[in-house]
Description:
alpha/beta; 40% helix; 3-stranded antiparallel beta sheet
Amino acid sequence: LVEGTANSATYYTLPHVLAELRQYEHYGVTGMLSLGLNRDLVYRVREQQQAGALDGATVFVADHGIGVEGGVPPVQHAEDQLDQPKTADEARKAVDAAAARHTNFIKIWVDDLYGTKPKMQPAIYTAIIDEAHKQHLPVAAHMFYLEDAKALVAAGVDVLAHSVRDKPVDAELIRLMKQHGTWYLPTLTVDESFFVFADHPELLNDPFLIRATTAEELAVLRSEEYRRKVAADPNTARHRADFTMASRNLKRLYEAGVHVGFGTDSGATPTRLPGYAEHRELQLMVAAGLTPVQAIECATERNAALLGIGQQAGVIAPGRKADFLLVEGDPARTIGDTERMVSIWHNGFEGQPWAKPVQSAP
Length: 362
């Protein structure tokens, strides 16, 4: 959906999808779950990858995703990228259609964007979760508020796809998540992406970042106009508070024994850079209080379990796929050393990092 400095449904094309998957792989991200707003061509990509005919990060699919009319996600999308059922019956039909396309996950959006958008009602998301489970599909929910998180977990949602950010998580949510085995993806880079490049313009001189973006976007992010825009945005203070709350909630949930995985929302907006964002997320998780090894486990062994491939990948062991990075330094001590990649192994084949992704289909 992103090309340079803009979002557009017209960018969801085969060359663009392949280029983005290759960019992930060049940054050592060997698998990614595309959580909604997918067009059907992504299934052709997945099939060709499974047949060994395409490179790039292995893609897992959450179909179109299900929202509400006029609600989130607040980005341009085509009619075939998002389902917006008005009734529980329509919601069940949307799930069944996704299942028929052999989606890996169902994605729902349950958020009102600071009270500015309509929010999916419990009757709708309860029907979606129930129907998805009948089809043996897990459900991931975009959410923001603590009370929504509790209601979704009680309804059986499998993944909370962002942090709780309005208030501290409490004992009730922890109890519910442990009771239901619910996964939690903190996605700290989501909130940080709204202000980080204005606050820390020095990051924009890092070759590791520069390779993930375009000259056009770099020029925008380096401009004084961009920094003034961030400073003047009335939501910037909210995003800073959200980021702080998300970081605190991650530490509490992890220490409480909740299943914490790994995600970034990279590729969703121009400031969430595929590949780069994943290394940044590891650093933010460590800054939030996890050890480097704990953060790495969230991104590898735990995420493999979440994706249902824990018997094939996620750890280095006999009989598993060779999916790993070779790096200089010691990420177990200094998490930033994940950026010092020497080589990337994916599905048993060695690849090289750093190369710019190919911009056209093979």
